[in-house]
Structure formats: C-alpha cells, structure tokens
Amino acid sequence: MDDLYRDHILDHYKNPRNYGDLEGATHHYHDTNPLCGDEITMFLLVGDDGCINDVHFTGRGCAISQASASLLTEKIKGKTLDEAKAVDKDAVLEDLGITISPARVKCALLSLKTLKGAAWGLTAWPGEEPKEAAKG
Amino acid sequence: MAVTARPTRSATKLDVARIRQDFPVLSQTVHGKPLVWLDSASTSQKPRQVLEAMRAVYEEYNANIHRGVYEFSERTTAAFEDARAAVARFINAPAAREVIFVRNATEGLNLVAYAWGRDNIRKGDRIVTTVLEHHSDFVPWQQLAMEVGAELVVVDIDEEGRLRLDQLRAELERGAKVLAITHTSNGLGVINPVKEIVGWAKKAGATVVVDAAQSAPHMRVDVQDIGCDFVAFSGHKMLGPVGSGVVWGRAALLERMRPFLYGGDMISRVSIERSEWNELPWKFEAGTSAYVDAIGLGAAVRYLEDVGIDAVHAHEADLVAHLLPRLIAEEAVTVFGPHDTRDRVGVVSFDVKGIHPHDMATLLDREGIAVRAGHHCNNPLMTRLGVAATTRASMYLYNTLEEMDALVAAIRKAKKVFGV
After folding, report:
1. Which of B60, B241, B362, B368 would be a feasible disulfide site paired with B33, CB 3.0-4.6 Å?
2. What ipTM was predicted for this assembly?
3. Of all residues in chain A, what percent carry a pLDDT higher than 70?
4. Do B373 and A14 touch (CB under 8 A)?
5. Which residues 341-400 on chain B approach chain A with CB closer than 8 angstroms?
6. Residue B297, helix vs strand vs coil
C-alpha cells in the first residue's frame, strides 16, 4: 500500500529497540510534539571516558516518531557523547530511509531533538519553556 | 438595509451529483485517486458561484467601499452591503446593522470577549463555558477570567460525549455573568440544545455567546429563535472564502460597547482631542474590510439558501447514519461521541487501536481521502477523552455514501499495513 510504512519502520514501531527507563542514566531529556501528542524521553548512560555505554527511550506517538527514536538509539549506542552531539537531521532521515512529507518532519525529528537535549545536558530547548514531565 | 424574507425550500433530497459539479476542486485526484474531501469542519470547498462573485468584483468593478463617490465604489459598497443583508437573512437577524464582518469566528469571539467582556466582567463574576469549546471560544474567556479575576466554570460532558445539561443548568442557577457555548462540537459533532440552554441562562441574567462556526454551515441557525446575545461563525467553513466571518450581536448591546479596533471607517469624527464612533455596524469594522471576501460569503449564503440548509442537514444525517454503524462494527475502531445519529452534524471522530491518528491520516491520504488528525484545537476535550489526538472525518453537502464506504475500505487497508 505504501512505501512510507516499510517493514523496517513498522518493525521498529512495534518492536522498539532499547525501549524503557534506564536506571542510573547520566543524561535524559523529554519532549513532545503538542500538535500530534508524540512524546519521547531519551536516556543516556555516559561513562567517564565520554562513551555512551547505554541508551534507552520511552515514548508514544505515531510510527514515524517512535521508529525514528528506536533507530537512533541503535545508531548512537557505543558512540561518544561528542559523536552523538554531531548527529544531524540528514542522518536521521537517511536511517529512516523513506521520503518524509513536510507535515511529518517534526515527527521524524523529535527523537533527534531529545537526543540533543540529553547530550547537551539541557533542561529546556533554547527559546522554549521547560516541559513538564511525561504526561499520563 | 431592510431584511426581506426569502422563501426557503423544504428539506427535499439534495441532488449531490449536480452539486458536485459546482465544486471544481472535487474533480482533482490525489496520489492517483479521486479526492474524497472529509475535512470540511476544518475548511469547506468553494462552489463556482462564490469564486465567480469574487472574480467579478476584481475584474469588473473593484474599488474601496464607503470611500469613493464614483460608480465603482458605489457598486462595490452596494455588493458588500447586499452580502450583509444576505447573511442577516440567513441567520434571521432582526437587522442587518447587527451583522459585523470579521475575518473568522475567532476574531468575532475575541471581539465580544474584548469589547463587551472587558467592560462587563469583573472580579468574582462567573464565566460559564464547556469542555466542548474550540480554543477560539475557550482561550479568550480563560484569559479574560485570569485578567480580571473572574471565575471560569467549565461544564463537562457525559460518557456518551453529550453536554452534561444537568450540570450546566445547576451552574447557571448558581449565577453567571456570561455563558460562552458552542452550538455544535467540532470534535464530536454533537449539537447542543442551545435554545433550551439560553432559557436557563437568561433566567440567571447571563449574556449568551454562541459559537456557531460548526453549526451555521450545516444547519439552521436562527438567532431570534435561539434567543442568545452574540453569535460568531467563519465564512470559509460554509462555502465562502477564507478571511470572511461574522459576529452578530443585539443592537442594544453593540451600541453600548466600545469599539474593538480603532482606525479608518469606524469613526464619524476625529479631532486632536477626541473621536466619535461611526454607527453600527461600521463602528466595529475598522480599516478596509475584506469586502471581496464578504461578497463571496454573501454568494455562499445564497448558494446554501438555494439548496436549502435543512436539506444539507438531512443529507449529513444520512451520511452519518451510513458511516457510524460500519465504523462501530469495525474491529479495533473506537468512535468518540454518541453512537447514534440523534442531534449530531456530519463529524465523526475515531481512533484505531495501534495506529496513531497521524499515521492513519497519512495512509488515508494515499487513498485520496483527506481527514483531520490531531487535537482539533480542542485540548480540554482531548484531555477529557483521555487521548492526545483523534482522526476526524467531517462531511458536507458534496459528500456521498460511496465516499463513506471508501473511508471504511481505506481504514481496513490501513489496518492491514499495520497488522492490526
């Protein structure tokens, strides 16, 4: 039916990798797309050597946002914090491997936003109010 | 500006095939499929008659209104005021001067909340509204309440999605300065019995503001029969152009109100020391009005009168009666709002377990079907329903039973993709 919902997207959506809270996380960041209700919290466990020893995420939302988060955790696990900071949106979109329409780009990039927030140790994204904790 | 009565045709069946020929955009294809427009609650498509009325202004006699003494300005002014008379007749306003052209319902409701609200709502006053309100009829009152220290009372819905009339009545009996209520819910499609409600509100001495953005396009809105004080609606949801909208108010209230916006056309006299205001309705139409859009709205109203607004309402009821049972019977589908066709317009909100509304809307789009996915500018209602978003199909006079079947078929296809 659709090249947007390829098998690997649906697989990561239904069986998200590295999903769940991460005990002892050194970094974490939560963000939402208020328009669609997508939400993601990214947790990092960074060692003294700056290496991301573990990464988890929690969240809910559309297939694009959740698959993107799952893919991103696979990408950065074992990388350094600096490498995580250097991941850009083109890399995330490339990993998704599908053409994202302008209306859905925000869904696809929410995971990257939470990764950057966590990696840079932000409490709020520049220019935004601090977000509340995950809503029930 | 006398309002002459116009005979309304009885609710005979709509000739939908003929109506569809009036809407050029409906013959478009999307992703190679015929367009199925199920987002009319967001904005409606426009018939040729409206486009033609606007084209004629720009190509044949365009001039600023109420300004020139030459032929073109007189013609444009006459067409603009004709549109006002048409709208007045459409909502059965006692006088056309009570009809104020604004950009949309949002601006109309803000006009009331600012120009009437700031002078009439004081600390401790009770503002009663409902959880069904669109943000445009919620936030202006919420902000007013915060500003002056008034109490904002938000009436709930029942498990079916209908307004808790018992609670509303009790809150009104406890006292209310203003009731801000939507005629029909943009999220659930339920019609509130506003006439009955206005009776309770009036007993409590409340001023009543009705958001008719989702009702005026789809059913009879008779301001005298309803008995409220203000009504606002948008032209673009009722076959008219974007940028056209109306707020109607009782002349006695409008005359006592201060202007909302200051500027040209709304004054009668300006000296260095002071200004005097123009008479109604122009006191509330500062600056050059979107007069071509207003003229387009006039044509839209005439179109709706010609097909018959009661027939439009009946047609939408037929569509909902066809769609609802099929959606309800569908595995994994939750339909929000009442599961019967009583007192509802052509709005059906639903969720499919395991498929986020945005994914659903994307998959439906691939089938040529345009629906709205999101919170519908209705956060308090979404919170009440316990969801972040829903998928909403909204119908109008140009939709067909076949399109309802196409929607159900496309939902089944989406379920297959997601393995639901």
Report:
1. B368
2. 0.85
3. 93
4. no
5. 355-359, 362-363, 366, 373-375, 382, 387-389
6. helix
